[in-house]
Amino acid sequence: MEGMEKVNLCGIYAEEKKARHVVILDLKGLTDIADFFLIADGTSERHIKTICDNIEEKMEGHGLKPYSVEGYKEGRWVIMDYGDVVVHLFIESLRELYDLDSLWIEAKRYGVEKEHTRQAEVKNGKRKA
Question: What CATH number is associated with residue 88?
Answer without folding.
Answer: 3.30.460.10
